Amino acid sequence: MAQVTLRKIVKKYDEVLAVRGIDLDIVDKEFLVLVGPSGCGKSTTLRMIAGLEEISGGDIEIGGHVVNDVPPKDRDIAMVFQNYALYPHMNVYENMSFGLKLKKTPKDEIDRRVKQAAGILDITELLDRKPKQLSGGQRQRVAMGRAIVRDPKVFLFDEPLSNLDAKLRVQMRTEIKKVHQKVRTTTVYVTHDQIEAMTLADRVVVMNAGLIEQVGTPNDLYHSPATKFVAGFIGSPAMNFIPCQLEQAAGALSVRLSDKLSFPVPSDRTARYASHAGKANLVLGLRPEHIAETRPHTEANQHDFDMMIDVDEPMGMETLIYFTIGGADVCGRVNPNAGAMSGKAMKLRADLSNMHLIDDSTGKVL
Amino acid sequence: MADIAARSPTVSMGDNRSSLHKLMQRKSTIAFLMALPLILLVLILVAYPAGYAVYLATLNKGMTRFVGFGNFEFLFGRETFWMVVYQSCLFAITAVIFKAIIGFVVAHFVHNIPSKGQRKWRGMLLVPWVIPPAMSTLAWLWLFDPSYSAINWILAHFGIAGIPWTGETDWARFSVILVNVWIGSPFFMIMYLAALKSVPEQLYEAASIDGATWWQRIWFVTLPMMRNIIAITALFSLIVTFANFDIVRVLTAGGPLNSTHIFGTWAFRVGIEGGDIPLGAAVSLFMVPILAVAATFILRDITKRGSEV
């Protein structure tokens, strides 16, 4: 058990900067998820923590010791790989006990720990099998078992669920969370799937182009994204971005989305946005769930408007509707019984209390 | 088989032309016809000579009379024969071991060369293997010349007396093995290199995170992953080395005093040069059971592991 600290971590491949100076404090027992699109440097960062990649600059500390030049085998970490990386010539027991065997752990101690880990992961009856005889989900469990048995300071997961089918992925996600609640080891988990990140993490690190965009709890990222990238990356369906103008008239602010459509800015945000009035390149960010069908009574900052629906997608528990405002595609989520139909007009309601105003030239959320 | 069994009820006995037509259209028939040229080639070039050798080995020296196992009994009684057995085993086993070790080590070096320069090195390292052995052995013969060779000349500069490379029993055995290793190592290198490339990089990463040193990675990951290739390559090389002829023939011609003869060269000496073709055939036949045993052992091991992985 230990905290992990990254200070100004840089990774250069020839002249290409894959990671461009990352600072990160991972608290003891924390489940931290690195998320971002492919090529954002998240896997590279994880592999640098593991010691599989040399760092080009900065410091990595595990448990208070700088480990920049410590080889992976001496870092006391365990890693679960995307393709499991189980040793094909060893059975499950041998796979799980390999690390302990190398450390010359006594046989009965190895046996006890393997059986215990197998119990946690429910793979006791698979111990004699070879990896070839296991399904994807079982291999994934074995790979986790191999990590748990070692009782390392830090668990590293490198996109461990991306080789599984959708159903199994959801199941294993819960499994991983349960295991972490049982063993409580500091965990760094890399994924490109924002749902995985949201559901698993104590804190999420959103990376983009070798830099950290934002660090925060899943709810922080969802409700108060710091940048347009985070706002668009977290949440599914993604947040709507609608080009807008901020108009000031008689002390009141309003966002104008088109000639016909304009909403007053919530009064508690007036002070925050006032200085940006009249600026170019402003974008209104509004999540699909904040565009719904109209309802009888109105709460503060909710505004009705009429819209022609382009496409409706019934999902069962809700219906997604798509329409355009000022050239931007917009998605809303309405009650399946609200009568949304492609090609028909509908009365919708926008909840501006959850709006985000984004300066598109800097990408920052204002 | 299942194909034939399943279809046979539909083939009517009365209509011969259509049943022949059906026979021709059957997949197994077509497969057999396609393989026929090769089968004929094997029969003519392998099965017939092998059968003929067995037949020859049962004749007397003049090839006029059937003597049964007479030639074999005669061989068992000759000291030279047992020398040849010993030397063949010594030659083949030692050479294969060294070829395997050198091939393995060199394959690792080449594997770690950045891919840009790797082709060049791979090509250069294959040179000993692609030169016709009779030619390269001739070059070695000159290098081994006791009076005028480069090796002894260099040794003389260091004050070391000239070594009788091909003139003394132990040195001659050493020399033929050395040349065989020189020629054969690249084959091992290229096979092992291919095997190394097929081991997923992540297994090494997993092993190093599991705490394995580089030696433990080789022992617990590389070697087990390469076992089948190692076994097949070793078996193949063992057979070829055991049946070697050209290197020994060119370098020492079996000398001095028969001390470097192996089955191939001795069979040639006895059969062709000595004019006793049946006896030569008998000598060469001794390779078959020895190699068959080796082949069975190694191949059985491969199928066993093949089914468990």
What does this structure look like?
The complex is a heterodimer of chains A (366) and B (309). With 366 residues, chain A is an alpha+beta fold. Chain A folds into two domains: 4-233, Rossmann fold (3-Layer(aba) Sandwich); 240-365, OB fold (Dihydrolipoamide Acetyltransferase, E2P) (Beta Barrel), CATH 2.40.50. Chain A has helices at residues 42-50, 92-102, 107-121, 136-150, 166-183, 194-200, 218-223, 228-233, 270-273, and strands spanning 4-13, 16-26, 31-35, 57-62, 65-66, 77-80, 154-158, 186-191, 203-208, 211-216, 240-249, 252-256, 262-264, 282-286, 291-293, 302-308, 311-314, 319-325, 328-334, 345-351, 356-359, 364-365. In chain A, the strands form five sheets. Chain A has a six-stranded mixed β-sheet, sandwiched between helices. In chain A, strands 13-12-11-14-21-22 form a six-stranded antiparallel β-sheet. The radius of gyration of chain A is 25 Å and the shape is elongated. Chain B is mainly α. Chain B has a single domain (78-308), classed as MetI-like (MetI-like fold). Chain B is built from 15 helices and no strands. Chain B has helices at 2-7, 16-25, 27-57, 70-76, 79-112, 115-130, 133-143, 150-157, 169-197, 201-209, 214-242, 246-251, 263-273, 277-285, 287-308. In chain B, helix 3 (27-57) packs across helix 14 (277-285), helix 5 packs parallel to helix 9 (169-197) and helix 11 runs antiparallel to helix 15. The two termini of chain B are 28 Å apart. The chains are: A alpha+beta (366), B mainly alpha (309). At the A-B interface, strand 6 and helix 2 of A face helix 10 and helix 11 of B.
